[in-house]
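Interim report, section 4.2 (structural modelling).
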Amino acid sequence: MSFFGSYIGMYMVQSITHSVLTLFIVEMSLRIWQVGEARERFRYRLLVLILPFVMFPAFQLVNPDRGSFYFVEDTALFSSLRWINVEVFGVRPLFYLFFLVTGAVSFVVLLQEVVPIMRDWLAKPQQQEGEGTPAGPAIDGMVGEISAVLKIKKPSVFVIDDANPVIYTTGTKEHAIIMSEPLLSVFSDRELRGALAHEAAHIVRRSNITTLLVFLVRICMFYNPISLLEFRKLVQDDEQICDDITVSVTRDSEALASALRVFSLDVPHSETFRLSFVKEAIESSSHNLLLNERIERLENHGLIEYHPYGWVRYAASLAAIVGVSYFVV
Amino acid sequence: MLIRKYLLFGAIMFVTVIMLALLNWFPSAVQKEGIRKYKSIEDVETQLKIKKIFLPAYFPQYLIWPPAEIYAQRKPYNMVLMHFTNYERKEIVLSIRQVDPADPAPLVSRIEPVTIKQRDNVLIKGRKGLLSIALCPGGEPCNSVTWREEGYEVEIIAKDSVKELLKIADSMMEGRPFSGDRVFNPGK
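Predicted structure of the assembly:
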């Protein structure tokens, strides 16, 4: 049996094809339904990551014969293998392209995600949630007010000794906000309130759990280029949703935009070419680009009023993706 | 306004389906290799230049001629698979396949037996063959016989009795005399 005839081979090919199709339908849906809200866009983009991960096994359960020659011949709308097996002068270019792309994407995921996580994990096994010193009554009071508005249990705030501007939320049940010491002197009260409200918004949205689950799906589909790109968009959408929640609490979009500027990274440069500099430069530029997009959005739109979800149109898009994908093998 | 959006969404989905169908058709239009469906046996002979296509001289009356489906390929391995339908039931009841024995994963028939009840060695006009008494999904009998001839592995699967199946197989071996006992090593 060839690789593409095996379950894992079929899974890899079909999950990538389903990702492309889902991405296309989702992007079309976002335009047709004129989805402008980050919250709703997030739900649509989640489909691009989740559906291709689960559709193939679900379809095979419904119809084990779905991978057969006769299903492809009689029923299927599109067969990826037809293209992969196309021969040009005795060579199958798309066959090699498939392995080249999936290999390259796997390498990027390994280098960008798995290695840093493993390195951090091995270097700091003792690091626990809530490390650092308590932030003090002023910040505690501020977080208490924000928590009351957002109707969440007030998280603890800890200050850590780190020269970089860092603020994040930890925990899945008991949450804590961790911030680095320089932020206390860099932020004005308004900016600090905005930054803390943003972290509290992550707690409201359970971003830690959501991001972890989405990240696991992405790692499972390490070979899939669409998952790689879509994961970043999802994280960016999540940040924008938290920005919107923050502004709804503080009514001060300018302060949050100003606070975000602190997190811009210096793009490294060097006289001599070094691969590590290129990697850092790309990462810093990409980080700044996403940050600038959020700042611009906050400056231009301010408070965004959320409308009720369009469940019917969402269901229509979902049904179209699942329905068409069933016939794409 | 909302209806217009739904109509637009429907139209985009329709175009997507059409595009997928076109994209699916394109490789088979430009690519002549691999398993393809043919309209007639003559097409297979002329287009693929396969010299020998095994056909039965004995053809039970309940079968429709010509074959309902013919799949064939020349590369990487020679293969011809024909499906025949029943006059009354209009379903596939007989398949005849000839395939290069080197093919590691030849195309299987639409009537693939699922439960093998018994295997017997048989002689098909003097050639050693293997008879499988089996059931199709649903418990319907579908027996098969395979043997090698002229560099091919020939397989017949029929939703019919063993007697009829072997009669069809015998009739495919033109010019070869019947050579005595059919079952020479039963139960093995």
